[in-house]
Records
---
Amino acid sequence: MRSSFRLGRIGGVVVGLNVSVLVIVVILVAGLSLGQFPQTFPGYPTVAYVLAGVGAAVLFMASLLAHELAHALVAQRNGIEVPRITLWLLGGVAELRNEPRTPGADLRIAVVGPVTSFVCAVVFGALALVTGAVPLVAGMFGYLAAVNVLLAVFNLIPAAPLDGGRVLRAALWSRWGDRVRAAVTAARAGRVFGYVLIALGFLQVVSGLGFQGLWLVLIGLFLVNAASAEEQQAQLGATLHGVLVGEVMSARPVTASPDETVAGLIDRLVMSRRLSTYPLVAADGRFLGLVTLNRLRQVRPEARETTRLADIACPPDQVPKAVPDEPLLGLLPRMNGAADGRAVVLGPSGQLLGLLTPSDISRAIQTAGLHHHDPYPHPRGADLAVPPQRLPEPEPKPGERAQRRTEV
Ligand SMILES: [Zn+2]
């Protein structure tokens, strides 16, 4: 989820808003200050309803933020980096850099969110009692107590990626001792629940409750998508478990000098070698940047003779770096966030040892089952009945086979 506005930093976590959050704020303010509040608490001036509506929307966002912050702080306490929290149309997202290492940590990180929402509900409920003399204000706090209970209960439904799905994953993980199988089961539960919500939403639309139905369909679609992605991610984790960067990198890649021109590289290598990536190295072997075909293509033909590779390369500090004996699974999230989607493998003195491109990764997935050591010693169960080596081999793209031959 991309943050459109940055609100600040709490406990080392960047807190941001996606622009879509404005939609839900507008819906809340309009619905409460034009509909629900005037109907339930008549007799106040319009400005009072608008203030109560805005107050309810802002405090709702604050309680959602408290829920996400609770996830983030407990994750940090369990050794997981949390770079960002983003509030958006359908709620909040706390981004965790890694997965929890134990079922206990998984459970604690998941359950603290709904617990926080219950605590918010109690606080708002108490405020509603205290402000009982002013029915509109008490009504606003009562509304906030109710939505926080709803938030906690809905998120405890055992369907990933909801918190309840994480609780289910932790429980199955602890019972089966198999994290992947537990994650796949929780994700499948998430997908089924998503389809149920979509069906319920359609029923509501058909029976005349148009808007609420559409909202359920939207949430259902999001859950189906997110759960499918989680299932794929879990199976990818099982496939690549134990595979090291050094086993899948393209060793001794073809390199270029930073002072070579774009035209020079095209004449010397690009047309004959069909590689997609050229690392730049200094005379002493130090890594100085990465040139890809995309970057070469962006240079106008008349400028090719005068443009140096160093001018168009991705600078070294923006390229993810790895060492050969590091697990591949740890590198993948860093590659996903990188500009060119590629990583370099460096030796102890910073010299270039190898290159990791998306085609290296897909080849690693295809061949993971062929490694002589079984990367995953536990019985996999019916959930993982398709071993990776039996997946159909995709047609190589033109030039890909040549690329594999020359890169390795
Ligand atoms: Zn949560």
---
Amino acid sequence: MEINKLVQIGLEELDPVLKNPLDEVYKILIEKFQVSKLDILMNRSLEISNQEKEEYLRILSRRKKHEPLEYILQKAYFMGMPFYVNQNVLIPRFDTERSVEILVDYLEKESYHSMLEIGVGSGCVSVYLAHKFPQSTFLGVDISEEALEVANKNKTDYKALNLDLFQSDLFENVHGTFNVIYSNPPYIPTSDMEDLEPSVLEYEPQMALDGGLDGLVFYKEIASKGKKYLDDNGVLVFEIGIHQLEEIKAILEKEGFENVSYSLDYQGIPRVVWGEWRGECYV
Ligand SMILES: C[S@@+](CC[C@H](N)C(=O)[O-])C[C@H]1O[C@@H](n2cnc3c(N)ncnc32)[C@H](O)[C@@H]1O
């Protein structure tokens, strides 16, 4: 069948259910059949085999049920790099790239060369940073063994040998101290979970989203316990949810963190909050 016809079928199938059906159709064809957008636009009679057509139709029917394209294609882009994903991990979000910018600013300083990430998920943040800073050491933990399998695959794909990964409920199995601790923990208040979009609610792991009664449970635990795992002058960096800035700043200040600062995401929403730890003797 001609590729042009596949584009048409895709639009007919996805238009009633999705916002940008043409974008999605292009993404599927480009990722799945190794064609370029130019091929699709200029070489409209390019032949696609029956087997490929069947596969394309199967993808469309999954996407029609709101399954995220990233899970169907088992690939998500983060910081411009492809990462393997499946339904055991949160799909890396564009907003999380703001956290990476703050972490890079610290890791570029001479005295910041070790980082612990609590809740690595796909590993996108730690793998990206370990790849970028081969002389530094990284530890990523997650409570989910299934998520760690995904993170390990990404670690291997990017040859990030300076990243260690293991299972831990928060700091339970963590030893040693670090210059940087980072977490993008589950932060949706339990009562808001049911308002999430179907593609998130039905497909993404609840364990990666549900932040307890007020959505702040993980921030409180990590800020309070994390001090013991930070070197003097270390920094604790959090990705935060919408409307959580004031509460999380207060949590960090109450725990004795200094220079508490924040940055906005690309929509102007406070998204990253961090505080510096001078050491127990200064509190
Ligand atoms: C919001 S996701 C963030 C994933 C990844 N860091 C990212 O930004 O794409 C939160 C992660 O925390 C993990 N998690 C939940 N509870 C945890 C706990 N008690 N200890 C460690 N990790 C936990 C989840 O399995 C999930 O992978």
